[in-house]
Every structure is written in C-alpha cells, then in structure tokens.
Amino acid sequence: MDKYDHKTIEAKWQDFWEKEKIYQASDSSKKPKKYVLVEFPYPSGEGLHMGHLRPYTAGDTFSRYWRMKGFEVLYPIGWDAFGLPAENYAIKNKVHPRVSTAKNVENAKRQLKSWGMSFDWSREVNTTDPGYYKWTQWIFLQLFKAGLAYEATGLINWCPKDKTGLANEEVIDGKCERCGTPVEKKELRQWYLKITAYAEKLLEGLKSLKEWPEPVKLQQENWIGKNEGAELEFRIRNYELGIRVFTTRPDTLFGATYMVLAPEHPLITDIKNQISNIKEVEEYTENTKKKSDIQRTAVEKEKTGVELKGIKAINPATKEEIPVWVADYVLMGYGTGAIMAVPAHDERDFEFAKKYRLPIRTVINNPSALPNASASPLILRGDETAEEPPLNIRGDSLPHSLPRAGEGELYTGEGVLMNSGKFDGMDSEQVKAEITKFVGGQKKTQYKLRDWVFSRQRYWGEPIPLVHCEKCGIVPVPEDELPVTLPEVKDYEPTGTGESPLAAIVSWVNVKCPNCGGKAKRETNTMPQWAGSSWYWLRYTDPQNDKEMASKKLVKQWTPVDVYFGGMEHTTLHLLYSRFWNLFLYDQGYVTAQEPYTKRVPHGIVLASDGEKMSKSRGNVVNPDDVIEKFGADTLRMYEMFLGPHGDTVFWNDKGIVGVKRFLDKVWRSAVSNYPSPSGGGWSKVGRGLHALIKKITADLEAFKFNTCISAFMEFLNKNENMAQADFEVFLRLLAPFAPHTTEELWHQLGYRDSIHQQLWPEFNEKLAQDTKITFVVQVSGKLRATLEMPTGSSQAEVKAKVVSDKNVKKYLADKEVVKEIFVPDKLINFVLR
RNA sequence: GCCUGGGUGGCGGAAUUGGCAUACGCGCAUGGCUUAGGACCAUGUUCCGAAAGGAUUGAGAGUUCGAAUCUCUCCCCAGGCACCA
Fold this sequence. Notes:
- The structure is a single chain.
- By secondary structure, the chain is an alpha+beta fold.
- It has 27 helices and 31 strands.
- Strands 10, 11, 12, 13, 14, 15 and 18 form a seven-stranded mixed sheet that branches.
- A hairpin with a 5-residue loop joins strand 10 and strand 11.
- Helix 1 (6-20) packs across helix 24 and helix 23 packs antiparallel against helix 24.
- The longest helix is centred in the first third of the chain and has 19 residues, at 50-68.
- The structure holds one RNA strand.
C-alpha cells in the first residue's frame, strides 16, 4: 500500500480496540489514576456536530497521552438524554421520546466510534435510564430532607413557547436558553433548590480551584454576586411597620432624600388605604406586571415611578420626613425590594431625582471637584453648612437649609462626609459600620444568586419523587420505592397552565400516602435537564450499582475529575449546578472531594467559515461524517486542533484540511518507503532534534496547546524525512494520541503486535534536547546587524572576538565609541554606541 | 455602562514570556511530472524598493541597550453581566 486508505484502516483498528478492550479503566489497577471528563452529549436527531468534536478530541488526545505516561485513565461517556427536543419531536410525530432517544443514541455512538474516541464504553450511562434517574431522584430526596428543596409560589421566569418555568441561569438576555423566546414573568407554584444556602461555599470553593481559568472563576463569582452592606429600617409616619432597605452605602444615609419600593412590594397593598392616590399607584404596578423583563430592564429606558401620596418615611439619621415612591427600577428579587434613594451618590437615584425634581443632597465631598463653587457655576452643591454660602449663577446666596429640588451634582466615589451631623469630616469607608450602628441597622451580605427554580411543567424529565397528602402534606417517596418511573402518556403536549402533562394520568397521580396510607397525589412536575448532569461524573465510577448512587470506595478512588473539557456556555449553568450538588453530597458524606473538577479546560466555539453559527436554516453546517468519509478521522481530528488555540473561537474552513492530509500522507510514505522490514532499537543521529521534539510535544500537550503540537510534528518531518527507524518509532509514539489510527497501522507494519496506545510515552534527555550550536544575534544600538553561529555556552570574549571581524559589523562600529556592551548568553550581543 | 479576553502578512495562526517578528499550514506565483488536472513534487512568497537599504505587530505616547510582549491614553472586535441599591 503506497497510499493511506483511511476507510479500511480506521475501521480495522476501531474494531481491534473494541475487541481488545484496551480503553477500559480498571478499578483494581495498581497504577495511579487520572480521570478525564468531557461533557456528555444530548443525543439529538441531527447527530453530533463539529462543536462536540473539539472537546472530545482534546479529551481523547489527553487520555491517550496519560495512558502512555503510565496512568490508569478513566475516560467515560454517556447521554444527557432528558430534554425538550425529544419531547417536542414526540408531540409532533407521536413517537415516544424513549424510542427516538434510543435511535439517536445509536447514531451518536456510531459517530463517536468513527472518530476513534477511546471511551470506556463499559461505563456508558444514560440519564433517562430508570436505573440512573433512580439516583437522581434519591439525591433530590436528600436535598429535600436537608431542607434544601422547598415549594413556593412566586413570580418566576416562564417560557411561553416551551410552556415551562425556567431557572434564572436559563434566561440569557431575557430570552429562553433553549429556544430564544422572550421570557415572561408568571406567578406559579414551583419547586426550588436552595442554592443560595451554598452561595458562600460556592464562592469559597472557587479560591481552591487553582487550575481553573480565571475568566471562568470570575464569571461564576460575578454570577453569585456577593455584596456586603447593611440593612436599615426607615419608619413610616403614623404607621407601625417600617420599610427595610439593603444598602452598600450606609455612609450616605444623611443624603437619603426619598425612598423607592418595587412595584411588587407587599407593603403597597398593606397600606393601601393610606395612599391617597392609590388608583394611580395600582395602575402603575399593574402596568409593570405586563411588561417583559426585556422591556423592564432596557437600559435606555427612562425611569418611571409614582409617588405614594399620603405616605412619608422618616430618615433615621436626619429624622426628616421623606417621600416614598414606587418605581420599576427597584427589583423585588434583590435585597428587600425597597431602597433608600441617595441621588447625590447613586447614578440611578440621581437620574430619577432629576426627572421628578426630588432633592439632591451632597453628603460625600468629591475630592477631585473644584473646591470653589464659583469656579464651576453650573454646579450647585446643596445645603452645605459652610460659613460662606456657595453662589449660584447670578451670585445670590442660596437658601441654607433644604437642597434645591432636582439640582445637584453626582459623585459615586468614596470621600469625606459632609452634611452628616456628627459624622462630618470622617472617611466614608470607615464610617459605614458606625452609621449602621447609629440607626440600629445590621451588617448584611447580599448575593445576586437566586434559588434554583427546579420544577418543569413538561413530560420528558425525572419525576420529582414527592407525594402531596391531604393529611400529612408533602411526603417524600420512600427510598426503597425509587425510582418513580415516568408513566406512559397519550399526549405529551404541555398544558400551558403550569401543570405538567403527567397531571392528566389519573392512575399515576392518585396514590396512597406513604405516611398515613390516606388519599394523596403525586407531584407532577419533572426536574430540569440539568438534574441528570449534576452528578453524572460520580455515576461513571460505579455505573451498575443499584444499592448506592456509587460506592464510596470507587468515588474516592476516581474522583475528583483531573481535567474537565467543556464549553464556556456552561459556566453559570451546569458547572455551577454540579458544584452545588457535589458540595451538598460532600457535606452529607457521600462524596470525598469537596470540589468535583480539579482542572477545567474551556474550548472555543466552532463557527462556519462565514463567521456564523452552524445551523440548518443557514445551510452552512459541516457534518463531521462527511469529512471523515473524505479524509478520515485522523485528518479531521488533527485539522480541528490545527485550526487555532483550543480556547479560541475557530472558523471551520474546508480549504486548509488538505495541509493536514498531506502531512499524514507524508508520514505514511516516509514509513512505507524507508522501513519496509521490521527492526528497531536505539537512538540515532537525528536523536538530538528528536529529544527536542519530545520535549516540545510533552510541554505543549500539558499546556493544551494542541495547534503548536501539530506544527511541531510538521516541522520535524519536513527536516527529517528519512530518519532512522528507531527514531521513526519514537516519532510514531508521539503522534499516536493525535492520529490514533494511522500510527497504529504503521506500528503494526513495523512488526509490533501490541497496540501503540499501550506503549510508553517517550522520555527526553534535557541535555540532548538542547542545540549544540546556536545562532547569535548581533545588534548595534539595538538594531540587528548580523547573526553568528556559535557553540552553545560561548563566552562574551569568544563571541566578541568573532563578531568584530565580521565585515558587516565592522562597518557599523568604525570610528564609533562603544559606550556599553550587552551580552545575553546563548542569545545576543549588543554594542551601544554613543 | 461595568467585568473579562483579544487586535500580528491575502487568510488561519506562531513567537521559549523583554532578545532574529511573521514558525507551521492554507492560498498565490514559477518550474517539474502528467494526455489532463482543482492530484503530486520542488522553489519562492510581510510591505516599499531594481538594489543598497528602509518600514512594519489597531493608533499615539512612555520605560529600556532592546518592546508584538511592560506602563499610560484612545479606537475597534468577541464573550459575560446589566436599573442587583
């Protein structure tokens, strides 16, 4: 064979690997372990796409590398198969999701095998398998028993197209994460997981994740959104209840000239009969409800609000009576749903005060503002108690006590207090605690993270294993009755009323209470798709266990995951959720690692060559199956890596692939023409360069710089087309994780019987990896004037002696005085002229 | 608006972290092989210039013997968050 026939060869070795089971991870191995994880795919009808190839190839290459390094590597795969597409397909075509899913799994599995992935198929899991979701339900029950799952009625995100509630994390830019439909707010009874109880631990844990990329950690940190401040109470005039507010700036309390309640704030209904313009207020709050989140939070939008006439709050610091407003720029979901407004020191309050002519009182001195008010006559300072009152434009003195409505200056920084009674002259940063104490408030930590809306009004998900009993209330299904299996339904169509299609299966819904035996109904909501993936890496360690989620011994043996390849888009979804579940299971003593993933390696997205997302409607999809048909898996894998750095967005471009194909053909030709018969052993004359190659490939692999590995291979082969056979064998071993089929075939052609993937990774000798000669850079005043071949380790004197005789350099040095000479060993010599 | 990345030939990208900018690949050009080729092989290919030489890493400044790399100002692109008090 003088040409590499990828179809025959790749199929042949895929069968061989499967038969020999060389990629199965052994629980009883004496070798040190490594756990390589890739995000398991959703088996869609379209099959796997280029986007899957990127992390899977990286994980595969890495697994192969670690196996050759002598580790027992666990590289498992499974199916995240609950979810909407299968269900929507069922609605349309009346095919049970179980059936279509099985078909899609079959196809995706064929694809993964054709890519030459070294997965351990004996550990395959499927989230829709009752033997799997039994344990998803079991974990839910543990959360429930720990008080971390609760039912509540509240305003939640609702996707009108998918007809289900959504978690906060599933709303991207105000739209449904799955289908892109603008999300609405709906008042619904929902199950929540109290992820907020783990806010601090999730934040704390990030600090221990030394091998996570900073941007990923930062994004999670921002999502959790910790904010330290104070909770203060403002009394309402002639009323027993007060208004509690959260603020990060208690130091500006003296500047709080009004208050704002969120439109949903319960106080508005409580004091309804004291509000003289209640009609106007209710009209406003009703209007707000109708608006979508997108409309409500649009930045360009001008702020609106209505004053609660007849209501006055009392600023606890100044004892002044201040107006109370309702405005939709205050959100019910954060803090207490009410704020103290300090227009002089908060941008939003400033804007609002300007519009509605509310008083703006400066209480923090802006150190960068000009001290003399007359120097900037347009800026009015409010009720400063300076001895000489500031001047307005006409030069008149201003009234002393009250700030002029709607006029003033905005300054949001820290500084020295003014107009703040006994706190005047103190530093704003230091005075925060004191002022909080002065008005009887408390220090308070707020998080932006919200509890996880955990129920979905859809069919194709794990049933929530709870029962509603008329007498006992909510009762968990006993653990020995798990799993609560999904019943067959006639109609998958979501009802849209906030009830799941399961509610219509009377025979399934009506049960006896496990507690009292009385009449009870099953919970009919299902879990979100994120449930199954929140613990799947644990199941891989012990996938057949029907007594436990996974045996503690095996969990301890394999976890944490050493390296987890996946997408940036899961940073505040799967990655956050699974860390939460793991932390919980850790606290309960079921898992041994506090953090599930030691290292996270994100990949860039694969876009079409037109720079757009690959999509059927655009017609720019490149199907990996077609590329494999034409070029083979090794070429596809290597080209995908060669496109660009693993973390970068890459554009698929059909044109460049021939470069990688040519390289592999060249490897093939080189082998077939140079080494027709088996022999081997020892190092040869190109050994030096080869040591350098081993060093380079090893280092770049460890740093996930796959693209430069490929260049290094190409460069080496270009220079050493006819290397000695022993060297070629080393070259093949280095290339094996990248081109598993080609290298396996050539390895066997060289006479070996074992798989190349079970060979050891080549070691390099540091001394031999160094060049014996190096090219010196000769500069005159920092400009390159010559280069010079010198033996490694040459001294300054040796280099100089050789350099000054160089014609070119002489020309530049003639009649000039050398002020300074810079010598960098094995690199450069620079003559600085006057 | 805020927070992250990033900006290098015609294109994808490389540069041992302050020391030969443009490796490797695509494309293109010329030549070879071929009945033919959009196959393969060889050579060349940052820009200006006939050459000597000069210029060049988004723009501008600075530090340094020396800057793609460090500092400052500005512009642009991608991603995340966004009326979060």
